[in-house]
């Protein structure tokens, strides 16, 4: 029952996810080529310098490449390793099976004990369900991250894409700000190039630009989950804003291992748990 409830909006979710990524890639493609034209015009006063990269093959490669930021010359590996491809493919199959098992054997029984959405149940029962869902949701989030790692590396190996820096060592992050900068490098690079830098160029202060970029990313995350499920409680957005407040007001008090512990606590009780509450309400309704 739960798997049907999860897969029912799956088409809408992946369609929305696909078109968001496509839109970000196409925006980066046209903006970067505009910057290239400006540089080429400065080098050649009569503007006769052509852009040899403007070809369908180059565009299609960028659309399938595991990156969101366009550039003229991507780094390439010498050849495709069949062993690495099979290894990544096996990882994806195994991880998906484990995720399905966690949903069916751990999360679904918790959902079945509920008769009403989270907003309509008693506060004590709500806390009980959230505490029960925290651990399986955390495992599911970690597995989803590993699945993303396998998919990105599979695509990179298949396309001989040389830049495999998809994330940093976010698990060792001493604070939430470091975690946000390291857990999704492609999105971080796109946001810095096409949002943060553009805002700063328009005389927005760096601190205000960082805040706006964070709020935009939080709203995008909320939109990506809420729209396919036809439910909007703003839980994900508010949870990310709460994490921002924690980072600002408590970050200076937690250092080293204590700061890393705070990061993991926010991962345990933060946006991944809010996502699960959305699926809970979708399952109930």
Automatic annotation (TrEMBL):
Q: Which residues form a coiled coil?
A: none
Location (main, coarse): endoplasmic reticulum
Alphabetical list of InterPro entries matching this protein? MBOAT_fam (IPR004299), Oat_ACAT_DAG_ARE (IPR014371)
Q: How does it sit in the membrane?
A: Multi-pass membrane protein
Q: Where are the transmembrane segments?
A: 6-27, 89-107, 139-159, 211-229, 235-254, 261-279
Q: Name one Pfam family in it.
A: MBOAT
Any idea which UniProt keywords this protein has? Acyltransferase, Endoplasmic reticulum, Membrane, Transferase, Transmembrane, Transmembrane helix
- Top-level EC class: transferase
The subcellular location is: Endoplasmic reticulum membrane
- Listed EC numbers: 2.3.1.20
Pathway(s) where this gene product acts: Lipid metabolism
On the tree of life, the source organism's domain of life is: Eukaryota
Q: Which family does it belong to?
A: Belongs to the membrane-bound acyltransferase family. Sterol o-acyltransferase subfamily.
Query: What name does UniProt use for this protein?
Result: diacylglycerol O-acyltransferase
Organism name: Characodon lateralis
**Lineage of origin:** Eukaryota, Metazoa, Chordata, Craniata, Vertebrata
């Amino acid at each position: 029952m739960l798997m049907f409830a999860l897969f029912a909006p799956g088409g809408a979710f992946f369609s929305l996810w696909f078109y968001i990524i496509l839109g970000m890639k196409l925006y980066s493609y046209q903006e970067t080529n505009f910057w290239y034209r400006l540089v080429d015009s400065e080098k050649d006063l009569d503007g006769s310098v052509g852009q040899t990269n403007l070809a369908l093959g180059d565009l299609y490669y960028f659309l399938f490449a595991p990156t969101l930021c366009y550039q003229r010359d991507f780094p390439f590996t010498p050849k495709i390793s069949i062993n690495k491809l099979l290894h990544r493919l096996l990882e994806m199959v195994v991880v998906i099976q484990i995720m399905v098992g966690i949903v069916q054997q751990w999360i679904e029984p918790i959902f079945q004990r509920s008769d009403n959405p989270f907003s309509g149940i008693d506060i004590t029962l709500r806390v009980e369900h959230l505490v029960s869902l925290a651990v399986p949701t955390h495992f599911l989030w970690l597995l989803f991250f590993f699945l993303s790692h396998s998919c990105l590396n599979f695509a990179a190996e298949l396309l001989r894409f040389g830049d495999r820096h998809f994330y940093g060592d976010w698990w060792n992050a001493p604070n939430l700000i470091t975690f946000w900068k390291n857990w999704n490098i492609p999105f971080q690079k796109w946001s810095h190039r096409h949002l943060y830098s553009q805002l700063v160029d328009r005389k927005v202060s760096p601190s205000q630009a960082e805040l706006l970029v964070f709020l935009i990313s939080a709203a995008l995350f909320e939109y990506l989950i809420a729209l396919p499920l036809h439910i909007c409680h703003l839980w994900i957005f508010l949870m990310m804003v709460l994490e921002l407040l924690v980072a600002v007001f408590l970050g200076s008090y937690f250092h080293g291992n204590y700061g890393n512990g705070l990061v993991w606590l926010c991962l345990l009780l933060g946006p991944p748990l809010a996502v699960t509450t959305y699926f809970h309400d979708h399952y109930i309704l």
